[in-house]
Structure formats: structure tokens, C-alpha cells
């Protein structure tokens, strides 16, 4: 991160513990990570390494036992109540399971309008924002009266992405957003996420156990192992010369997908960052 561009999200020495006060189980050990404006940072690691817990801590869904989380220079580590609700305008999430994350009793129209109603957006403006989001995720307007059960996994994930985007957040935590989908659908959703980032400048913290997926969409990659962040770098570099033994193992287990595309995407982001620093 250059001195001229401050990261949008900064996590410093973050500690999260589950269990009880008497018998705490530490699952994040002083984790530090930064995500710049318009950047996609991938968080990879095996199951149980603490990736989702880090995402949840940023969203305020688990208590923080130590360290600090800042968003746009503001300390949000222990934000609660009104302050936390207001943060929903800036930080949103897309979960892994497009079947469980959409309320089956709500129409798509209501699902997409709900975050706007919570934010106090007027009905007319909400209607036009919802229509715009449907266009962005390539869904027709006639889905509004229908229910989640009428859609495929990929279509549901498009709806979940539209819902995350509708308040125009600056950061989306994507928690394994494609791992419940078949390979072809994975590819189209990843393309959609890349395109949306290019068009809106939103940042992503992209959680995945799949290094191949992360390399495809992310400018930088952070590797987690047993609650520790063991390595951060660009995907190219981690693939070429992994520093940590665990990264080497992760690499051996991952098919290498599109290294040229990843390098190109990182370069584009670096150029964008330089341009915005120069303004
Ligand atoms: N609510 C909870 N209570 C107690 N322990 C938990 C809780 N949630 C997660 N853990 C434990 O915390 C550790 C980290 O879990 P976490 O879900 O963050 O890992 P992960 O890397 O996201 O794994 P996965 O890829 O399987 O989702 C694991 O050991 C898990 O068992």
C-alpha cells in the first residue's frame, strides 16, 4: 500500500476467541490485513483456518478480543447498534449458500428493496435502484414477483449479489460466493463480480479455500493457516515462490487457473490506484 493511498479497510493484530471467558479458544491470532479502495483481496486457507471468522469480525457478527478494525480511517472494532447499522451502507456480504441466504417467503422484489427500506430510501428511488441492480446482474425485471425457490443456484447468487450492491457499499465481503455452484456457473459469477468491481469500484474481501478461484479475481492474496495470516502477496508471486510451507502445500493442492489473467488484473488495479492517488 503506498503512502498516498490509505487502505479502505485496515485490520491490525486482530484477536478473536470463541468458547467461554473462563475457557477461551483463540481462533484468530493477531491477524493484520488491508484492503484498498477498488481492490480485491483474496483470503485463502483450509477449512477451520479462520477465514469466515475474520469476515464475521469485520461485519460485527463476532466479538473482538484484541486488535483493531478500521474502515476509511474510522475505528469500527466494537461498533454496535445505530453505528453498526449505518455501516451496512458501506460494508455488505455475499454468503456461500444461495439457498440459505435468501428468505424463501419473500419475493425477489422485497428481498432487494429491504436493505433500502432499512436505510430510509423513498419508494420511488428504491424502485429505480432495484431495477438498476437487476440490470447490473443481468436478471430480467419480471423476476420481482417471484420467489427464491423458482431460481437456480447461479441465479440466486446473482440476486444475493444485487442485494449486497443495492445500497452501493464500498466493500463487499464475499464468503465463498461460488463454492456451492457448479464449475460453469462459478465462472459466470466470478466474471460478474469482476465486471461489477470494474464498473462500481467496490472493494472485495474474497474468502475461499480455492486458490485457483482467488487467483482469478483477486489483486492480492492472503494465506491463512490455523488462525494466523502466514503470507500476503500477489497471486503470481505466491504461486511462483510461496514463502510459507503451508502456501506451498495449498499450491500443490490447487489447479493453477489463468495466471496471465490474474497478472493483468493486478496491473490494471495498480494503474488505477496510481491514477486515483494523482488526482
Ligand atoms: N460459533 C463458533 N463457536 C465455536 N467455535 C467456532 C465457531 N465458529 C467457528 N468456530 C471455530 O473457529 C475456527 C475457525 O472457523 P472458521 O469458520 O472461521 O474457519 P474457515 O476457515 O472459514 O473454515 P471453512 O472454510 O470451513 O468455512 C474453527 O476451528 C471452527 O471450528
Q: Any idea what the shape is?
A: globular
* Uncertain ranges: none
Counting helices, strands and paired strands, the structural category is alpha/beta
Number of helical segments with 4 or more residues: 10
Small-molecule binders here are: adenosine-5'-triphosphate
Span between termini: 17 Å
Strand content: 15-25%
- Kindly state the number of beta strands: 10
Mean pLDDT: 87
Residues in helices, as a percent range = 40-55%
Main sheet record: 6 strands, mixed
Kindly describe this structure.
The chain is an alpha/beta fold. 41% of the residues lie in helices and 23% in strands. It has a domain at 98-168. It contains ten helices and ten strands. Helix 6 links the parallel strand 7 (171-175) and strand 8. The longest helix is centred in the last third of the chain and has 20 residues, at 259-278. The protein is globular and about 50 Å long. The mean pLDDT is 87. The structure holds adenosine-5'-triphosphate. Adenosine-5'-triphosphate is lined by residues 18, 27, 45, 47-53, 209.
Supply database-style keywords.
six-stranded mixed β-sheet, binds adenosine-5'-triphosphate, 279 residues, four-stranded antiparallel β-sheet, alpha/beta
Can I get a quick summary?
This protein is of the alpha/beta class.
Would you spell out the secondary-structure blueprint of this structure?
Blueprint: E1 9-19, E2 24-35, E3 40-44, H1 51-59, E4 66-71, E5 74-75, H2 81-87, E6 91-94, H3 108-118, H4 123-136, H5 153-165, E7 171-175, H6 183-200, E8 203-208, H7 211-217, E9 220-225, E10 228-233, H8 235-240, H9 245-253, H10 259-278
Parallel strand pairs: 3-8, 3-9, 6-7, 7-8
Antiparallel strand pairs: 1-2, 1-4, 4-5, 9-10
Helix pairs in contact: 3-4, 3-5, 4-5, 5-6
The protein binds adenosine-5'-triphosphate.
Organism: Microterricola viridarii
Family: Belongs to the ABC transporter superfamily.
GO molecular function, one term: ATP binding
Amino acid at each position: 500500500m503506498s503512502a498516498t493511498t490509505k487502505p479502505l479497510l485496515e485490520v491490525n493484530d486482530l484477536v478473536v476467541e470463541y468458547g467461554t471467558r473462563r475457557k477461551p479458544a483463540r481462533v484468530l491470532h493477531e491477524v493484520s490485513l488491508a484492503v484498498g479502495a477498488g481492490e480485491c483481496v483474496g483470503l485463502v486457507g483450509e477449512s477451520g483456518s479462520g477465514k469466515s471468522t475474520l469476515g464475521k469480525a469485520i461485519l460485527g457478527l463476532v466479538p473482538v478480543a484484541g486488535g483493531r478494525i478500521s474502515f476509511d480511517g474510522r475505528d469500527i472494532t466494537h461498533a454496535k447498534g445505530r453505528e453498526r447499522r449505518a455501516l451496512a451502507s458501506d460494508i455488505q456480504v455475499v454468503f456461500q449458500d444461495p439457498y440459505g441466504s435468501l428468505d424463501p417467503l419473500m419475493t425477489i422484489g422485497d428481498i432487494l428493496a429491504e436493505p433500502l427500506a432499512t436505510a430510509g430510501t423513498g419508494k420511488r428511488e428504491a424502485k429505480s435502484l432495484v431495477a438498476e441492480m437487476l440490470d447490473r446482474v443481468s436478471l430480467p425485471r419480471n423476476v420481482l414477483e417471484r420467489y427464491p425457490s423458482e431460481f437456480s443456484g447461479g441465479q440466486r447468487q446473482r440476486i444475493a449479489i444485487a442485494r449486497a450492491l443495492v445500497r452501493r457499499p464500498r466493500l463487499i465481503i464475499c464468503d465463498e460466493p461460488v463454492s456451492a455452484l457448479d464449475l460453469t456457473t462459478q465462472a459466470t459469477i466470478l466474471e460478474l463480480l469482476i465486471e461489477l468491481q470494474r464498473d462500481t469500484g467496490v472493494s472485495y474481501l474474497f474468502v475461499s479455500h480455492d486458490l485457483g478461484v482467488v487467483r482469478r479475481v483477486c489483486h492480492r492474496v492472503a494465506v491463512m493457516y490455523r488462525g494466523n495470516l502466514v503470507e500476503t502477496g500477489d497471486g503470481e508471486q505466491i504461486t511462483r515462490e510461496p514463502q510459507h510451507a503451508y502456501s506451498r502445500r495449498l499450491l500443490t493442492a490447487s489447479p493453477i487457473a489463468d495466471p496471465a489473467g490474474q497478472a493483468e488484473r493486478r496491473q490494471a488495479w495498480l494503474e488505477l490506484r496510481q491514477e486515483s492517488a494523482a488526482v
